[in-house]
Amino acid sequence: MGCCESAYLKQRNSSEKDQRRGQKYPNHHQPNGTAAGGEASGGVPAFGEFSLADLKAATNNFSSENIVSESGEKAPNLVYKGRLQNRRWIAVKKFTKMAWPDPKQFADEAWGVGKLRYKRLANLIGYCCDGDERLLVAEYMPNDTLAKHLFHWENQTIEWAMRLRVALYIAEALDYCSTEGRPLYHDLNAYRVLFDENGDPRLSCFGLMKNSRDGKSYSTNLAYTPPEYLRNGRVTPESVMFSFGTVLLDLLSGKHIPPTHALDMIRGKNILLLMDSHLEGNFSTEEATTVFGLASQCLQYEPRERPNTKDLVATLAPLQNKPGGRILSVQVPSYVMLGIPKGEEAPPTPQNSLSPMGDACTRMDLTAIHQILVMTHYKDDEGTNELSFQEWTQQMRDMLEARKRGDLAFRDKDFKAAIDWYSQFIDVGTMVSPTVLARRSLCYLLNDQPDAALRDAMQAQCVYPDWSTAFYMQAVALAKLDMHKDAADMLSEAASLEDKKQRGGRGS
What we know:
kinase, alpha/beta, protein serine/threonine kinase activity, ATP-binding, three-stranded mixed β-sheet, five-stranded mixed β-sheet, 8 strands, brassinosteroid signaling pathway
């Protein structure tokens, strides 16, 4: 199919893709809890393989403007924000070249993590192996990291009840992973805790991957590294508990304090000196003492003396329900406690007046669309083909003859014949034409084949990413498929591109 593919088409072709994937990696299966239509339970997409073209399109060709790694372009493995054709936001982790030399090992590891589905995780939804490229695709969390909210906040610090919630939710995530046979988490820290669109804390799935050849299981700061890892270089479930203890210290102090220093203060009963001064005393000393006690257990030098994940949950869960003379914190939504808007605001609908094409597509007037495409002819194809003299072969002449016959049939409204002639032109593949794809898309719509129409319109967008006509044709096809919200999004996108062109940008 083309380099772009809608969620709808992926659902229609999922069985065929699964069959191919099973041949490539025979031990791979769809994760448990996957509902019909490619969606896992809870609305999280089923895990699958992405093409490199999909991810390039989603991230604007991995634009530096889309980097969301905390250390920006200096990060060894960059994370990009992206948006798929079905409008879902994603986070794409791009590893350094040949970080995973064996593609099967990378795919196996990704599929293992991809089976997990839990509300406390930023779940892994796919991967890509293409040449030397190794990429992971996860749910996108739009409200920054715990590190940002704790150490680099601008508007307000995290209140005490929210800190307790973060501790519990991450403990629940670790307990779930341990129960599902994935107890190892690499370099758990405040940068691995993310906040979703509702402000709920989630644990990044990226830390569940076994470490690649070019990285380390822990950050280079040895003060926060489990002592046994320094001895043998291995991550164990007990190592994860040590790292969880450092996160608890972060939550309590609002600073990144080395564990040995914190433990000395705890032993000296100087707990109040460790508490974050930005809380201004608005916390329960009893609750803080309990959390410090748990942190102390997690940071024990001997791994066997540390608690397990169920101990973490058992200690932290009761703290969520203490009223303390206030409204139960469990009743207050996370976004309220974080001081952020609820959910992700939809982009405003462009206020500019629609072009004739936009108006025709909004009205689903296929006759008007046909008239516009006939009048526009091929002016929008300029620059999409640069052919050498050697390519002007007899095959090329035959191909252009097929296009000419298609144009005549299209003009005369013989849409079935136009499909046949345009298909001959497209199938040769020597020359790409977004206009032919848009015309064949309309022919398919007029022959009640919206699946094929959507496919052609998306392929036209791949050829010419800023072409509003491609988006308009997708909108009509999506509406024919009863995907009206997606159709409305596409109309808005197309109108924005037209407005951009009117203000001097490219896009028609």
